[in-house]
Design goal:
The protein has 3 helices and no strands. The relative contact order is 0.07. It has helices at 2-25, 32-53, 62-73. The longest helix has 24 residues, at 2-25. By secondary structure, the chain is an all-alpha fold.
Length: 75
């Protein structure tokens, strides 16, 4: 039954991303930095949920890739 919950969370996430993308395309947000801000807020909520779902910490070079991808997201 956990697969159903995971699939449901995935579809809800896709719906939120679809709505955010639709707002971007419709020119309601004139600046890309605003989209980046709202996307980061959404991802921050997901990051705060990681300890509660039992995700392990990164090891070794995974930290480098995680930080690098986080830094380049805003550019």
């Amino acid at each position: 039954m956990s697969w159903f919950l995971i699939a449901l969370i995935g579809y809800i996430s896709f719906a939120i991303v679809f709505i955010l993308d639709k707002v971007i395309v419709s020119d309601k947000l004139g600046k890309p930095i605003i989209y980046t801000f709202y996307s980061t807020i959404y991802m921050s909520a997901a990051m705060l949920a990681l300890p509660f779902v039992g995700a392990g910490l990164f090891q070794g070079i995974d930290w480098l890739w995680a930080v690098l991808s986080g830094i380049t997201f805003g550019f």
